[in-house]
## 1
Amino acid sequence: MPIKDVFLPLVGQPRGPALVAIEKCVAVAADLGARITALALEEEVFERPEVMLPYVRDSEHASPEAGNMRQLLNAFTDAASRANIRAQSRSGRVPADQIGAILAEHARFSDLTLVPVRPHDSRTEGVVEAFLFGSGRPLLLCPEHLADELRPEFENVMIAWDHSARAARAVGDALPILRAATSVHVVTVAEDKTGAVVQSGTALVDHLREHGIYASFETAKGGGRSIGKVLGSWANSHGIDAIVMGAYHHSRLNEIVWGGVTKTVIGQPPCWVMISY
C-alpha cells in the first residue's frame, strides 16, 4: 500500500536544527506524494491569577511555550508552501503528561509518522516510545543534528535484519520506500556467518524479489560493540540514506535497563530511521 497520508508532531523548542528537520520532513512527504498533517502541542501549565493593569497587553503575558508553538507552525507552513504539498495543521494545549498519548492517538490516522529527534533527549525518547506502543503505525525518525545533510530521497536503504517478527513488520511497512530505492542492503549483525543466519537473510532477499525489490545480503561483525553502534557505523560507511528496523526485540524493561539497539538508535539516529513495533 502506498504512503499517502503522513503525520508530523511539533513539540519542543524552535531551535535551528529543529526548523531544518521540519523542512526535511515536509520534503520527504512531498517526495512520497503524500498529504502531511502537523499537530503542534504546548504544555498546559497552571498559573496563579495575577492582578493586571489596564494598559498591560495580553501578548506581554503569553507563555514561552505558546511562542515556541507558533514558530514551529510557521516553519511548517512555510516549508509546505515551498514544497507545494497538500498540508494541514492543528494546535492545542494539553497537560504535559498527556502529550505523548495524544500524539500517538492522532498518528493512528496516518500511514507514517515523521518524528524530528533531538540526540539523547529524554523528552524526545518519551514521545517516540508513545508512538511505538500507542499508534500502531511505523515511524520515520529524523535526526535533528544531521538535518542539514539529510536527503529527502531514499536511494540507498538498509534493512537491519535480526530474523524477528518486528523486523518482518518493519519490512512490510517499508515496502513503498524499498520499491523506490536504487539499492537495498539486508544487514545482519553476527559474529559468525552461520547457516541459519545466511538462510534467513537469503529468504528475505528472495521475498523482496517477489515485490520487484532486488536486495543484497551481508553480515556485519560486532567486535564487542553494541548492535546499534555497529548498524550506525555500517550505515555511515556505506552512504545509507535510511535504515529500516523493528523495535524492541528483547523485553522493553531489558532495553531500558541495558540500553539495546532500539534505545541506541532512538538516542542518536545515524540517518533517517524507519522503525516499526
## 2
Amino acid sequence: MKILLLARYFPPEIGTAANLFYELAGGLAAEGHEITVITGFPWYNLESVPGKYRGRFFMREEMHGFKVLRVAVPAPGPRKARLALGHLTAPVTAFTGGLLSGRPDAIFAYSPPVFIGLAGWFLKKLKRAPFVMGVQDLHPQCYIDQGILKNRVLIRVLEAIEVFCYRKATFITVHSEGNRDFIAEKKGISREKIKTVSNWIDTDEIRPLPRENGFSARHGLNGRFVVGYAGTLGMSQGAPVIIEAARLLRREEGIFFFIVGDGIEKEGMMEKAGRYGLGNVGFLGMQPKCVYPYVLASSDLGLVTLNAKVKTPVVPSKILGIMAAGRPVLASLPLEGDSHRLIRDADCGICVAPEDPKALAEKVAWLAGNRRVCEKFGQNGREYIVKNLSLKKAVREVESLLNSFSNSLNTTGGPG
C-alpha cells in the first residue's frame, strides 16, 4: 500500500510528535508498505540545523526504508512567532508536498495543527484516496482551557474548521477513549468514524537499562535518588510545581530533581530554583532521540505533570516512555483524565492532584524510602506497555484500519 503521512514535525527535530510519526513510518515500511512523509525543514528544539537542510526549499531523502519529502514555507521571526505561524504554514507544506507525490492508496495526517486536516481533505479530493486524521491534541480546545484563546469569534471560526476537518476525514484516530468521547459528544461526529489507536512506544529502543551508566555518570546522578522529568516545559505542563516540591525537600539528603527539556516555562523555573538556592535541582536541554533511553534509565522515578486547566483527556507520551523503561511513574495532573486511568490500570505508579507541591513532595519522599514499591511499579509498567502499547501493536492497528477502508473502496469505486 502507498501511504502519504503528513506531519508538521519530523526528525531530526526532537519531541513527541516528531518521534511518533517517525516510528509509525518506520513500522509501516517494515511491513512492506511504500511510505512517503511530507513535512517541513527541521528547526524545532534543535541547537543548530544540520548543514544539509540549510538554505533549501525542497528536498527528498531516504530514512530507514521510507521516503521523506520536505517543503519549506518561510516563517521568520522569534521562536514563539514561528511556532504560531507553523499552524498556518504546515498545511501549505503538506498540500504542496502531496501534489508533488504520486497517487497514494491512503493519506494519514497528524493533528495538531488542526489546519493540516484541510490539506488532507484537498489531497483526498485530488488524489481520490481516503484520508485519516490522526488527532493527538484537541485543538483549539486546549488553547481555550489554558486561557490563550479568548476571542469568541476566533474560537467559533477555529471550531468550525475543526468540525469540518473531522467530517471530511474518512476516519479519525485518537489516542484514548476519553478523546473519542469528546469528539463524538462535543463535536457531533459519529462514534463509528472515530477509532482509538493508543500512542505507542518502541519497546526495543526504550527498555530497562542499568541505572548507573555513562549518561548518569557524566551528569553526577549516581548515588542519588533521581526524580527525572524529560520533555516539554510548556504552559500546559504545569512543571513549575516541581521547583516548589524541590524546595520542600531541599533538606532531604540524596533526593535530586533532574529536569531535561525546553519550553517557555524553563527560564522562570531556573530563575526560581536559583532564587531559592536549591542544590537539589539540575537542568539540561532537550536531548537527541538516541540519548533519551539513558535519560529515562538514569532516573529512579519518572515525573509527569499537567496543570489544573487541562480539561481534555490527554495522555502525555512521557508516561509511556517511563513505563517502557521500567521506571515508576509519579504524576501530578487532573485525576479525572485518561492519564490517571492508564496509571491505575497498569499499576505502575502514583497520581496526585495538579499544582499541589506538598502532595508531590510527600509522594517523592515516600517512594524514595520504598525502593521495592518503585521496583514493582516499574516492572508492572514495562509489562503493560509490551502487552498493550508497543509500536508493533500500533502498526498492526493502523495497518488494519487502512486495509479496511481500502478494501471497501475497491468495491464502491472511490472515497466519496
## 3
Amino acid sequence: MSLSSESYSRQSFVEFALQERVLRFGEFMTKSGRLSPYFFNAGLFNHGASVARLGEFYAQALIDAGIEFDMLFGPAYKGIPLATTAAIALSARRGASQPSVPFAFNRKEVKAHGEGGVLVGAPLQGNVVIIDDVITAGTSVNESVDIISQSGAKPVAVLIALDRMERAGPDDALSAHSAVQEVSQMHGIPVVAIANLEDILALIATHQTFSQYEAAVKAYRARYGI
C-alpha cells in the first residue's frame, strides 16, 4: 500500500529505520575516522518488504519537494536498489494512464563485452534526480553529475535518505558548511532528504528508550554539525 501525504512523516521514517536496525545508537567509527554515537546503514534495508516501504518514502519525499523530473539515477552500488525501488513506487502512483518512471545506474567497471560501457538501464535524458543513501564527502554525487551531464541530460536534484547535517574535513579544519550544503552549492541543485539529524534528536526526546544517547548525539552535533 502506498503511503499517503497525510501518513508520511520524517518521524515515521526514523522509526522505520530503527525497526530495521538501519539506525542504531552506541559507538561507531565512521569512514572519516570519527567516533559517532549513531550509525545509519541503508544497506540493512535488505529484504523485500523493507525495500518496498523504503521506496514509498523516497517517492513521497520527491513528490513533496515538487521537483519536476523525467527519470532517476542510482550511483553504484548502494544507489542501484534505491533508484529501482523509488522508480517502482513513483510509477505505481502514476497509474496506467501515465508513463512509467525510467531509471538508470552506472557500473564501477567498464564492461568490454555485450553492450559495453558503464551505464545500465534507460537512456539518460531530460531532468534526472540522483538517488543515494547519505552524503559524506559528495564523491558519488560528483561522479553522477558528470555522468549525467556528459550524456546530455540535466541533473536537477539529489534525493537521499538521511542528512547527517555534518561538516567534512579534519577536526582542525572543518568545512564551513555541511557535506549536503556543499554538494548543493557546488552543483546548483537542491538536496532533498527524507529525514535529518534533527528528526533523530526529536525521536530521542520523545522515546525514553533512547534518552541515554541524547547527550552524546547533541555533543557530537555541537562538534561536527551545522
## 4
Amino acid sequence: MDTMLFYLEITGDYLRQMLPCAMAAALIFWALTPWRSRRLAAQGLRSGPWREGALLFLLLFCAGLAGLTLFPANFWSIWHWRAAFQGTEPLFPSVDYRLQLQTIQLIPFREISGALFGPWRFFMLLGNVVMFVPLGFFPPLLWRGAHWYRSVLTGLCASTGVETTQFLIGRGSDVDDIILNTLGALAGYGLFLLLRRLAPRFTKKFRCVKAESLHG
C-alpha cells in the first residue's frame, strides 16, 4: 500500500509539473479558435465539440509533456522557482558535457531488462510506454491517412528529440526510453484501431465534417 501511495505521489508531482506549459497551451488554443473556425469555414467544414475537446486534450498533453521532458529536472516545481528567485540556485543549471557523455546509455534493452527485477524501474518503464500512447492514439483519431507506421514515426521522432534535448540540458539520455516511447505510440495506434472497430460511428465524431451536417 505504501509503495502504491508513493507511486501515486510521484505521478501527481509529474502532473503538477506539466500544468504551467499545459495552461499556456490552453490559452493559445482558445486564442486561435476563431481563426481556426474561419479557416475551416472557408473550406466548408466545421469541427464539432468532440473533435475540439480531443484537440484541446492533445495540445494540453503535448505541451505538458514538453514541459516535463524538455526542461531541467524539477524545473517547474515550486521549490525550484523559489530557490531561483532567492538566488540560492540558478534557474538553468550549468551542464558538464564530459559527465553527460559518460552517463548516456546507448545499449538497447539494458535498462528494459533491468526493469524486470525492480518495482521502481518497472514503474518508470511502464511510464515511458504510457506517456507516448496519446501521440499514437489521437492523430489517427483526428486526421485522415492513419497508418501504423505514422504513429511509430511520430513516437520515434518525438522521443529522439526529447532524449537529444535532455542530453543538452544535463538530464539522462537512454536509448531504451526511445524504444519504450515508440512502443507506447504504437500501442496508442492499436487502441485507435480497437475503438474504431468497436464504435465506428463514435470515432467519426472526432473528424471535421461539412458545415451543414452539423445542423442536419
